[in-house]
Amino acid sequence: xxxxxxxxxxxxxxxxxxxxxxxxxxxxxxxxxxxxxxxxxxxxxxxxxxxxxxxxxxxxxxxxxxxxxxxxxxxxxxxxxxxxxxxxxxxxxxxxxxxxxxxxxxxxxxxxxxxxxxxxxxxxxxxxxxxxxxxxxxxxxxxxxxxxxxxxxxxxxxxxxxxxxxxxxxxxxxxxxxxxxxxxxxxxxxxxxxxxxxxxxxxxxxxxxxxxxxxxxxxxxxxxxxxxxxxxxxxxxxxxxxxxxxxxxxxxxxxxxxxxxxxxxxxxxxxxxxxxxxxxxxxxxxxxxxxxxxxxxxxxxxxxxxxxxxxxxxx
Length: 315
Fold this sequence. Notes:
Layout: E1 2-7, H1 13-21, E2 26-32, H2 36-39, E3 46-48, H3 51-57, E4 62-65, H4 72-80, E5 85-89, H5 97-108, E6 113-116, H6 123-134, E7 140-150, H7 163-166, H8 168-185, E8 190-199, E9 202-210, E10 215-223, E11 230-237, E12 240-245, E13 248-253, E14 258-260, H9 279-292, H10 302-314
Parallel strand pairs: 1-2, 1-4, 2-3, 4-5, 5-6, 7-10
Antiparallel strand pairs: 7-11, 8-9, 9-10, 11-12, 12-13, 13-14
Helix pairs in contact: 4-5, 8-10
């Protein structure tokens, strides 16, 4: 049975920890965080407040890093130097040079490494990518992606509001949609337009990417108000509009025909409706399969991550 540990028991760990607990032949043995109150929520795990101590005392096959952005690369390298496979929350780093440092460490120590870019495992986005690749509804003409929310005042030590530690909205929110673009459509040819509204208590960014035959506009925000979190997309193809909006995945065809891909019934996995799915669990299971069967981590490539960082650092 493979043994897993999680370092960083903040907000995103609430999606990772249950996913690990539900997988057979895997045991989540230890959690590490400097805040004991975060660990106390999981009395069935061994607790550590010191990362080095956990690495010394535990025999870990896989480390799941759910720490603040600025700690990702260093903690990943330290674990992989001890022969531990690592899955890490996005982004890999704020620094482009860390991509080579992390991946070369993985190669040197013959371990697996993956950045958990969750949209690559999200059913609605996977369907969009398939439609684009098969040209089922003709060529792609335009796209719009939005990822909107409110300022993350709840973050530990205010790290998310510190640009040097989080990179703010571009690296926390916009990165999701940009990473998916690079994954599904390739790197954009150029930035056609960009706008940023950044104040001490809010951050909004709008970028239009030119892919040659089509363009995609992406908006991301930390509003100063209690605006509800929203993540949607709308893509125009020659013969259809594919939209994931208002909690529904729809395809609008010519002649007023509509296809509803939304899954409104629990457990419905029919040929039309999308199955209910936990994308966080999907990414973890994918990485686990790569570790168990010694497969290359093909779904998230280092050169794609580097392309995303280069673009983000240019904004």
